[in-house]
Amino acid sequence: MKQFDYVRPATVAEAVAAAAQPGAVYLAAGTNLLDLMKGGVSRPDRLVDVTHLGGLDQIETLADGSLRIGALVSNADLAHDANFAKSYPAVAEALLSGASAQLRNAATVGGNLLQRTRCAYFYDTASRCNKREAGSGCDAREGENRTHAVLGWSESCIATHPSDFCVPLVALDAVVEIEGKTGRREIALEELHRLPGNTPERDSALEAGDLIVAVRLPPAARGFATHARYLKVRERTSYAFAVVSAAAALRIENGKVAEARLALGGVAAKPWRARAAEDVLKGVAPTADAFQEAAWRALTDAKPSGDNAYKIELARRIVVRALTLAAAGTPARIPALPASPFASTSGAIHA
Amino acid sequence: MNHSISLTVNGARRDFVLDDPRVTLLDLLRERLHLTGTKKGCDRGQCGACTILVDGKRINSCLALAISHDGADILTIEGVARGDQLHPVQAAFIAHDGFQCGFCTPGQIMSAIGMMQEAQAGNDPERIRECMSGNLCRCGAYAGIVDAVLEAQAGMDESNQRRSA
């Protein structure tokens, strides 16, 4: 690991000033950053430790019914908050389907949003990677790319964003509060992550010094609590990143879908909101045919970036399954195997 | 530049001067305190052999910078027994052959202790397997590990019932 300076600011303003310097990055739990630094993938000159800043670890309901989640709330504390899990069950299920219990205890809300891709060529410093080193090329294009993007990719980069948490969040119109050099601003989570285009080295819309201080769920996000699921296909039942995932949330009134929300994970460099699919569900009965049509719409623009055409059909099927399970109703308790598309059978070995 | 931190490790306060901010909690425990029960497996947060409790919560000590944890209360495998009396989870691992080579065992036991405190899995084997998935065992002693955790959980439930009766 390259040597770095360590700074522990006392206030958010001090943190922003310290992190605005070239070569500086924020340190929260470090569960992704330290891994990247150990591998020489990230080589920061300065770590600005925000873990001791006060006031960023609260979960609070605002006067208008929004929920505000501080950026330093741990993934586990958020998922296990009983009120949170009841109001936003798909988000809690997504959180619990990610990483391991140890990592969820440490990893923060803000850090989860800003985790880097798990593309093996990004991690391998002997490979060419436009995201790690702008203009060096992309070895994933002709390499092992069966888990790579099928939506929004470019010739420069076919990496995916690995977060589970972000997928239901983007479906529920989450907003990100950012403290920067020019003060406080907020953007839709959907605008935070960037598609690669010709500049895959830039993952997000954040500028130097920008610090995510909170994530907010608007009042309408609670309206889906009784019909919301997150489903995630992975290569082992637990402790694995998504090959494909989907968050589905429905508001059902008088037997019809009053409003639908759908987002996909593991398919693009950002959590992928599927608005065209949402539109075809509005006002119709929640039937298998309607869900098939929605799945078709969600993947209309998909194209393989390598040996991954299977992901397009897999994504369609996981969309149908997630919508079907959401329509059946949110389970009273998050399943033993969170987000698993496989039925839980008592006594089965999943080790 | 030197940084001073203090930690409580297995109940005792320890002060350190770090001349390098790159030291992880794992390396600090092993190299500075010679508490080598906490194992370095992958050193990348994938295997769980380095699991310790920090402020009562299980984490991977390989992905935690010591300098960032100034003031933390740390429990390692060396601190769970009371003298010669094993922690119930330790005793249950022996009773159920919850290990073979033993390298992952301190992490498994610390993870199980943390999991029981989290109280999410209860006595459901499937939830226990899911909640222990951050600890890999290359010998494949998983069946014994789950049995050991079930027994320790049953013992804890029983003593809680006695206490509330």
Automatic annotation (TrEMBL), chain B:
Keywords: Iron, Metal-binding, Oxidoreductase. It holds the Pfam family Fer2_2. Residues 3-80 form the 2Fe-2S ferredoxin-type domain. SUPFAM superfamilies: 2Fe-2S ferredoxin-like (SSF54292), CO dehydrogenase ISP C-domain like (SSF47741). PROSITE patterns: 2FE2S_FER_1 (PS00197), 2FE2S_FER_2 (PS51085). PANTHER family: OXIDOREDUCTASE WITH IRON-SULFUR SUBUNIT, OXIDOREDUCTASE, IRON-SULPHUR BINDING SUBUNIT-RELATED-RELATED. This is 2Fe-2S iron-sulfur cluster-binding protein. The lineage of its organism: Bacteria, Pseudomonadati, Pseudomonadota, Alphaproteobacteria, Hyphomicrobiales.
